[in-house]
Amino acid sequence: MRSKKSFSGFTLIELVCVMLMASALAVSAGNLLSTTVFDERWLYEDMISAARHAQILAETRGCAVLFTVGSVADSTDESVSRSVSNSSSVSNSVASSAVYSLKYDVNCRQEGTASFTGNVIRPDTSFSHSDIPADLSISSASVVFYPEGWACDAGGRESSTVSISIVGVSNRTLNIECGTGFVYGS
User: Fold this and answer.
1) What is the CATH number of the domain that holds 127?
2) Average pLDDT of the residues in 22-32
């Protein structure tokens, strides 16, 4: 009888194929494990939440709330004005390095000039966000939410929709309907 030889181990071709597949998986896993997409989505969802919070806060407090995004949040331009009630005007003096921020009118329910200098506070910190994910650009906008529920840009123009573009790995748009104050993403 003949004896059977048993071979143990892998052939050279099998080893090379496994090494090629492992290296391809390692390269693609680096892209898949990146947190950039998650960071962008978190910022987008947080901005939508902040805008909705601004509207609810304006309605419940009975005072106007200013929602600023992008480089508008860096400005100290006081030329922005809007008639809030009979003879009141709004001045925007936001000085912060935030991506977005919420400010409320500290002179609420008083005749005269309204000033958005009060910081809206979360339970643990101020209601602003300053970390921008890498390779992300955000268009600037400033929206005032009024106690009646509607909104307009801080310049007083009641355009039909204020759109804020967030451009990065995936492009997103935050929209605020001025007539109703409705905040939604697309």
Assistant:
1) 3.55.40.10
2) 81
Q: CA 29 to CA 128: how far, in whole Å?
A: 33
What are the distances in angstroms from CA 62 to CA 11, 58, 69, 148? 77, 6, 23, 8
Distance between CA atoms of residues 46 and 43, nearest Å: 5
Q: How many CB atoms lie within 10 A of CB 17?
A: 12
Quick check: is 8 in a domain? no
Number of domains in the chain: 1
Beta partners for 185? 174
Question: Which residues are CB-neighbours of 77 under 8 A, at least 6 positions away?
Answer: 92
Per-residue pLDDT of 94-132, as tens digits, reads 333 457 888 888 887 666 566 788 878 765 565 556 667
For residues 41 and 156, give the distance between their C-alpha atoms in angstroms, rounded to a whole number: 30
- DSSP secondary structure string for all residues of 29-61: HHHHT-SHHHHHHHHHHHHHHHHHHHHHHHHHH
